[in-house]
Amino acid sequence: MRVAVRHRPWNLAGALSAILLATGLAAAPPARAQAPEADTPARLHRLLAEGETDEAGALKAVAALGREPVVAFITELVGSRPGDADRVAALRMLGEVAVSSDCPLLLSLAGDGPPSGAVATVFRDTVVRLISRDLHGACRELSSAVARAHPRLLQAVLEAAESVDETGTLEIVLRILRRSRGYEGLLLPVVERLTPSRDLELNDALVGCVRAYLDDMEPMIRQMAAAALGTLGDHEMVPQLIDLLQDASPGVRENAARALRTITGLHLRTDAACWHDWLVEEQRWTACDSEACFAALDSPRPEVVAEALRTLVTHRLFRDRLAGEVCRVLEQGDPGRSVLACQALAQMGSRQAMRPLTEALASESQEVRAAAQAALTALGGIDLGPAPEAWRRHFRLPSGPCDR
After folding, report:
1. Measuring CA to CA, how many Å separate 211 from each of 223, 236, 339?
2. Per-residue pLDDT tens for 338-375?
3. What burial letters (b/e) apply to 173-212, b meaning 16+ CB within 10 Å?
4. Element (H, E) at 225
5. Quick one: pLDDT at residue 399?
6. Which residue from 6, 104, 240, 317 lies 20 to 30 Å from 50 (Cα-Cα)?
7. What CATH homologous superfamily does 289-395 map to?
8. Max CA-CA distance within the chain?
9. Closest to 343 measured CA to CA, from 367, 311, 322, 372
């Protein structure tokens, strides 16, 4: 007996689907697209630390986040004692958003001990950016924060500041010298290299700080202080510098002699007795003859004034005081005498005369204006032209007559 078998109609599409499913070749249903991960300080920091991202794009995203969340993240990161890669990434982030008040965080991020080369490099670059944004604010905050930092970080701060503004660097040096001891070996060479500053008041303040180190117990510090006072042109310390010509350290004696030559313009040999004889004669003239010379500057006879000016130029001790007396001639209003006074001030080398010389640029006499400009160029080492305001702005000079 036959059994009838019913056949289902053959479905080609279904068969193929079955085969594909069996072999794992069937196309999966389309996946839903995932939303890109949002930028957060933590994510951007991770990408920068791993080095697997477009750095410029990541830093642009950091800047877009703004200062507050970035600073909050880095503050928390510092407490976890991060490694160098994390410090470098965080320093780059901080450089995008930091303001002057973030200087303590910047120093904390760099670490308590000596920084690695990579950390020191990025730290310096971050300081440059910070100082470029707010010179005086950053210098003020950095000088306070760095006074307790590792010397290598202080060195990085000084290098960064010097690359932006030499006067700002000296402001940092001054504040640290006033606040603490222990960094003189780093700071005094900076004073020697960058002075005299165009800021006359800053020069005076540095002189007051550096003088104390001439009596330091360490010969190297005495040597550095002598060199710094030479570039600062500290006439008041000439007697102490002469005493240092008898110091036990050859380096101290050499720098003291160099400073004396710079300050006085004389080229006496490195011999304490020779310099002492010169000092005694200068002190005798100051005590016995200087007042008569000052009085001659007020003489109605032009030849007497000219002779007094020639005499004053030859004396190298207390040049700031002598220059102050010569400034009185500028105030007399006589063009011929004013020209002679400008010429004398140029030779005397006292930068205290720059204020009255700047005022003389406004004289009605073309000869006086030319002589004043020539004297300013000699004293300042730069020719800024005939406009008084250019000189005031460059050398930070207030308006007014010479201080006496």
Report:
1. 12, 10, 36
2. 999 999 999 998 988 999 999 999 999 999 999 999 99
3. bbbbbeeeeebbebbbebbbebbbbbbbebbebbbebbbe
4. helix 219-232
5. 65
6. 104
7. Leucine-rich Repeat Variant (1.25.10.10)
8. 160
9. 372
